[in-house]
Structure formats: structure tokens, C-alpha cells
Amino acid sequence: MSYQDLGEILRKLNHIVDKNLLSSFEHYEDAATYRINSEIAVIFTTDFITPIVDDPFAFGQIAAANALSDIFAMGGKPLLALNIVCFPADRLDDLEEMIKGGCKKVIEAGAMLVGGHSIKDQEPKYGLAALGLVHPEKIRRNNNCQEGDRLILTKPLGTGIIATALKTAEITVSEAQETINWMIKLNSISNSILNLSINSMTDITGFGFLGHLSEMLQGSDVGADIEANKVPLIEKALELSHKDMIPGGSLLNQKIFSCGVEKMIEIDSAKEILLYDAQTSGGLLISVKKKDARQLLKLLIEEGFSKSSIVGSIRKIATSDKRIRLI
Fold first, then answer.
1. How far is CA 91 from CA 56, 58, 95, 119, 234, in A?
2. Sign of the C-alpha dihedral, residues 281, 250, 176, 50?
3. CA 231, CA 227: separation in Å to the nearest integer?
4. Mean pLDDT by 10 residues, the chain (327 residues)
5. Are 59 and 51 in contact, with CB atoms under 8 Å apart?
6. What pTM was estimated for this model as a whole?
7. Which domains does the chain carry?
């Protein structure tokens, strides 16, 4: 079941109207937000995944960073987290390491790990239910791109391909270490960045770069021009893509979202699929006013997002236009 399918079910069942509910599932937002008072809103989200690396400590870090990402994408700061654990009863040492890894990321994010729930399962799964805080007027929504904005991507694409190659032993952990480091890195950004003229923001996860960009543009009168050669890519992932090491989720993303994409340039198919690659703990996609784009990029690089790049811009579109153009 996709997130869109779940959203349709919830829309049919949920008839609650509450002016303090500031975001939910209507626009495929990254998390739910609820206003407590004029100064405080809470952000609530959850995510858990199956292992994509063998090292349980590293997996715990990746899963926690992935779950906390939704709070950062809404412009908030994490406060509390609960473990969600499915694990075999005969691998308790690995379980301890996994939770230690998750706890390390929660603490790094400035939050507290305060409990959780576990069940026995043959296939390990781990993640968090997380609560964050944000000022009600400073929520960064995923669907407020404005004409003239510049689009900035903070992490390189290709984690889905690398994870698939690890599972099939096509590459070694050493060869995948760059990718693992990017997945472990929190999407936490400073107030210096958040105080710039950011109009919209989301994180890149299972629907891939062009899938999540499509969600940002849906239902609006704007589209995006993406400079394909400026999109940061993991070099090893591009190499593997040329060998057809493509996960099924990435191919499905291309099938679903490519109908809204117009190619104005010739683009190698191995590079093109990376634009649809299903990411785990991917980067932020930020739509910011042109006047602040260079300053935002500079600050991102200073904060460790060394592969950040201005990858495109937002334009007005006619009804007949495809929302995304690769230029």
C-alpha cells in the first residue's frame, strides 16, 4: 500500500475539523503538525525500515536519522522519540547495538529516547515515533514553492542502488562507506538557514528525487526546471546503474512519475534512473527565494552538506505543461 492509498483511506474515515491541526495527510506532508498555542506547535511522525546494512549499530543510526528527518523537513526540532522494534528473539546482542545506534542519533538531534514498543519478528525492523516542536508560523510545508525560487538538494542521490548492491554482495562495505555516511547524517539545519526565505521544503525518501518534487508541485500553478547535470550523485551508484543494478522501487518510481517529466536534453538512462532512485535517509529539497539561494548553499556546505547543489528553479506553468522539465 502506498502513502497515497493510505491518505485516501484516511480522508474517507477522518471527518474531524480542527483549526489547530495545521498539516496532516492532505498534501502528502512529511509529518502532522498541531498548534498548542500561539508560540508552539508539535510535529508528530513515525518511520521504520528493514536493514540495509549488516552492521546493527550503523543500521540503528540510519533508521533513526531517517525517522527524524520528517521533523527537520517541517522546520522543527526533535523533542522525544519512541523506539519501534521488530526483532528475532535469538539476536539480542544485535538488538542492543541497533538501539544504541538509534539512541546516538536521537541524542545528537537534541532529543530524548523515552521508551518504545517491540515485537518478535524473523525479519528485523527498526525506527522511531518522534515528536518535535516548531513555531506555528515557521512550519516549512512541502507545497509552497513560488515562482523564481531556486531548488537546492543537500545530499547526493543513489542510496537505493548502493543498498541493493550491498544486499547482493556486488560491492563491499568499504565501497559503500560514503553512502552509509550520508544516510547516517542528520538532516538537522541551523536557524541561520531556517531564517532565510525558504518557501517550501521536503526530504527525499522512497519516492525518489523527482517523485518528491512532483508532490511539492502538485495542485499548484508552478513547475520546476531541473538542471540534470547539477544534481549531485553518488559516483559508485552511477557506476552500478550502468550495470543495471536498479532496485524495483526505483523502477516503479520512474513508471509512476515520469509521465509528469519532460526531457529537454539528452540524458543517459543510467543517470536518469538515479533521479527516481528510492532513497533511505536522503537529503532535503529546499525551495528558496533567489536572493538567498547562494547564502543558503554556503551555509549548508559549512554545516557538512558538502555535496549540496542548486539544481533548478521554479517557474509558472500553463495547464498543458508538464510540471517538471529536465534541462
1. 11, 16, 6, 13, 33
2. positive
3. 7
4. 59 67 73 94 96 96 98 97 94 94 98 96 96 96 96 98 94 96 98 97 97 93 97 97 95 97 96 98 98 98 98 91 94
5. yes
6. 0.92
7. 3-138 (3.30.1330.10), 150-326 (3.90.650.10)
